[in-house]
Write a structure and sequence with these properties.
With 284 residues, this protein is of the alpha/beta class. The protein has one domain: NADP-dependent oxidoreductase domain (TIM Barrel), CATH 3.20.20.100. The protein has 12 helices and 11 strands. It has a 7-stranded parallel sheet with strand order 3-4-5-8-9-10-11. A hairpin with a 7-residue loop joins strand 6 and strand 7. Helix 1 packs parallel to helix 11 and helix 3 packs across helix 4.
Length: 284
């Protein structure tokens, strides 16, 4: 599979988002493990998770434990996989989401994630800004985690251009990635994507196909993507990912999956070549 830079590392141009395997509607463990193994089989070397990817309050870190188990079972073939996880976003267990960006929480959360994943975290994101905590204070916790070796690289998620630059000032070249929502249905993060390309940060669209509910309806909601897909004999989901890859050399989409077939199809997007006219039609 094609590779793209992630700081000093290179990883697959398509990653695997683990959230659908742990929240509402999740599959049984056997299918989840098969999905992760299928991603590795087709060359995926970046897996994205978070401590908040779980259902009930008592299972914080469900997705992290699932991924760790899948990698152990896969054996030496998983040695080059980068697992990225996140902290600062919480699920109380009632279906809602809250924030805690306090340095004390982020330090505790990262150490717990590292224990679940079995070692230093390859890439750790501040998951979502907490309006109760100065952004620089939260990023300072990432600096401390880098210094003590709990995490190897840092990122920010759901961040504005201003917040990205605050993190750059504090973390320097240890800040390697920004993860914001971006898809044909959600273009609001285009300024952040463009800023990342200007300063050399990897931009990872989350929900790049429109989310769990939107992915299946992508072709119906955005007819240009279905038309291009029909012309190539592929899925509109593949077209969407190929379009995102073409927007910037710094983009790595991380589509979520809960079935092996889904991630296998998504991975094929790296080999889908779209013409300039098709790209213009999709961007329009």
């Amino acid at each position: 599979m094609q590779q793209r830079p992630l700081g000093p590392r290179t990883v697959s141009a398509i990653g695997l988002g683990g959230m659908p395997m742990s929240i509402e509607g999740r599959p049984d463990e056997a299918r989840s493990l098969a999905t992760i193994h299928a991603a590795l089989d087709v060359g995926v070397t970046l897996i994205d998770t978070a401590d908040a990817y779980h259902l009930v309050a008592g299972e914080v870190g469900h997705n992290e434990r699932l991924i760790a188990k899948a990698l152990r079972e896969y054996g030496s073939g998983a040695a080059d996989v980068v697992v990225a996880t996140k902290g600062g976003h919480l699920r109380p267990g009632d279906g809602s989401w809250t924030q805690d960006g306090s340095p004390a929480h982020l330090l505790e959360a990262a150490h717990a994630s590292a224990e679940r994943l079995g070692g230093p975290i390859g890439l750790y994101y501040y998951h979502r800004p907490d309006p109760k905590v100065p952004y620089a204070d939260s990023i300072g916790a990432l600096q401390q985690l880098l210094e003590d070796g709990t995490i190897l690289l840092a990122g920010v998620s759901n961040a504005s251009v201003e917040q990205i630059d605050i993190a750059r000032d504090i973390l320097g070249d240890k800040l390697v990635a920004v993860q914001n929502q971006f898809s044909p249905s959600h273009l609001e993060s285009l300024p952040e994507m463009e800023h990342c390309a200007e300063v050399g940060l990897t931009f990872l669209p989350w929900s790049p196909l429109g989310g769990i509910r939107g992915a299946g309806a992508l072709g119906g909601r955005h007819t240009a993507f279905q038309e291009v897909a029909d012309a190539h004999g592929v899925s509109p989901q593949q077209v969407a990912l190929a379009w995102e890859l073409a927007l910037s050399d710094y983009v790595i989409p991380i589509p979520g999956a809960s079935r092996p077939e889904s991630i296998i199809d998504s991975a094929k997007a790296v080999d889908l070549v779209l013409t300039d006219d098709e790209l213009a039609k999709l961007s329009a």
